[in-house]
């Protein structure tokens, strides 16, 4: 199992929301972020935090999440919320019934519709038996009216870089869900775009990061690009603000026997064409350079056309050369063969 050591206790107990970046290990270790999250949820249950928990992921990894739960945490009930509308309705009426707290009396059966009577015949649903729900982006959008009724303890969004666009349908729907904490798993590093970064932070902590304009003013690099020390200070300030919310696992944290990374800087000289264009750019003569290249290309094309025309003429002359007449018995042999040797006639075919 992957160590939980790099997730401090205050996060493990569900007192904060955060972003976890697994980028350095994704291509090498495959499902480690899935296993790390399963370990996290298992640890929370061991500490008495029963959930409910909602995991939202792409359809391509939906079955992988279920299989990893069955493999590494078989004691944790898990529900794959996906399928036809009828199948999802059955899941909501059975597996995903609203749980009662441990020790709370079971609600009395209600008269009326048959559906309610069927529900009361099912085993008691408590926070201990309520499963971890794994579903897709599409399902949380389609069935928000049903899934958002649950008071989720944690909402985990796999491939969370999908939430970088603050205006996308997915993030707008997820914000309608009630949740005590939110966790984003991403293998894509944060881009140099404050709006995208703010979108992620606003999703996990909307009460703190509630104003995009103010956030952009805090870290406005546009007017300070020439002030090295001030820019460095802004970057350090940004790192300090992100540190409580961004957990990034590095290779050295997990695989201690890896040799240190070596960096080699190789300089590749410019090609002749690149050098000409570079010099033209420095001399502010790009327009003249491109015009000259266009004229040269046009002249080259004209030369090629002329050569092709001359070649066609040569072929035409060769085809129009008189063919040696049929050999006649009354002709003199010497006259006939002398004409062939001089090239007066082409050799007859066949």
Fold and architecture overview:
- With 350 residues, the chain is an alpha/beta fold.
- The protein folds into 2 domains: 9-99 and 114-254, Tandem AAA-ATPase domain (Rossmann fold, 3-Layer(aba) Sandwich), CATH 3.40.50; 275-342, no CATH class.
- The protein is 46% helix and 10% strand.
- The chain has a 7-stranded parallel sheet with strand order 3-4-2-5-6-1-7, sandwiched between helices.
- α9 links the parallel β5 and β6.
- The N and C termini lie far apart (85 Å).
- Mean pLDDT is 75; it is low at 1-16, 21-31 and 114-119.
Structural key phrases:
single chain; 350 residues; alpha/beta; Rossmann fold; 2 domains; 7-stranded parallel β-sheet; 16 helices; disordered N terminus; SNF2 family amino-terminal protein; P-loop_NTPase; nucleotide-binding
Put the structure in a nutshell:
Residues 291-319 form a coiled coil. The chain contains 16 helices and 7 strands. By secondary structure, the chain is an alpha/beta fold.
β-strand number: 7
Unreliable parts:
1-16, 21-31, 114-119
What's the helix-strand series? Answer: HEHHEHEHHEHHEHEHHHEHHHH
What's the overall average pLDDT, rounded? 75
Beta-strand percent range:
5-15%
Q: What is the name of the CATH class of the largest domain?
A: Alpha Beta
Strand order of the largest sheet: 3-4-2-5-6-1-7
Q: What is the name of the CATH superfamily of the largest domain? A: Tandem AAA-ATPase domain
Q: The CATH topology of the largest domain is what?
A: Rossmann fold
Radius of gyration: 37 Å
Biggest sheet: strands, sense, closure? 7 strands, parallel
Counting helices, strands and paired strands, the structural category is alpha/beta
Helix share of residues? 40-55%
Secondary structure tally, helices: 16
Please give the domain count: 2
How far is it from the N-terminal to the C-terminal residue, by CA? 85 Å
What form results from the Cα inertia axes? elongated
**Architecture (CATH level 2) name of the largest domain:** 3-Layer(aba) Sandwich
Protein name: SNF2 family amino-terminal protein
GO molecular function, one term: ATP binding
Coiled coil: 291-319
Pfam family, one: SNF2-rel_dom
């Amino acid at each position: 199992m992957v160590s939980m050591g790099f997730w401090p206790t205050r996060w493990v107990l569900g007192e904060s929301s955060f972003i976890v970046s697994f980028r350095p290990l994704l291509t090498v270790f495959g499902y480690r972020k899935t296993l790390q999250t399963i370990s996290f949820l298992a640890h929370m249950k061991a500490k008495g935090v029963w959930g409910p928990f909602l995991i939202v992921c792409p359809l391509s990894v939906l079955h992988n999440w279920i299989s990893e739960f069955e493999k590494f945490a078989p004691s944790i009930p898990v529900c794959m919320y996906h399928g036809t509308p009828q199948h999802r309705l059955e899941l909501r009426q059975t597996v995903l019934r609203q749980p009662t707290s441990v020790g709370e009396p079971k609600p009395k059966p209600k008269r009326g519709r048959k559906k309610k009577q069927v529900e009361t015949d099912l085993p008691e649903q408590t926070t201990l038996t309520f499963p971890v729900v794994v579903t897709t982006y599409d399902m949380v959008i389609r069935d928000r009216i049903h899934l958002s009724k649950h008071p989720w303890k944690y909402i985990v969004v796999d491939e969370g870089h999908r939430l970088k666009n603050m205006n996308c349908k997915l993030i707008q729907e997820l914000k309608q869900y009630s949740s005590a904490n939110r966790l984003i798993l991403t293998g894509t590093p944060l881009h140099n775009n404050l709006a995208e970064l703010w979108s992620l932070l606003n999703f996990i902590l909307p009460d703190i990061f509630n104003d995009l304009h103010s956030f952009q003013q805090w870290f406005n690099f546009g007017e300070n690009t020439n002030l090295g020390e001030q820019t460095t200070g802004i970057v350090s300030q940004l790192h300090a603000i992100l540190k409580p919310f961004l957990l990034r696992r590095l290779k050295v944290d997990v695989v201690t026997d890896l040799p240190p990374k070596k960096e080699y800087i190789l300089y590749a000289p410019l090609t002749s064409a690149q050098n000409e264009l570079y010099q033209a750019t420095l001399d502010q003569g790009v327009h003249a350079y491109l015009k000259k290249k266009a004229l040269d290309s046009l002249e080259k094309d004209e030369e090629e056309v002329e050569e092709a025309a001359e070649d066609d003429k040569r072929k035409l002359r060769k085809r129009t050369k008189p063919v040696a007449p049929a050999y006649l018995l009354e002709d003199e042999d010497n006259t006939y063969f002398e004409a062939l040797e001089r090239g007066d006639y082409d050799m007859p075919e066949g």
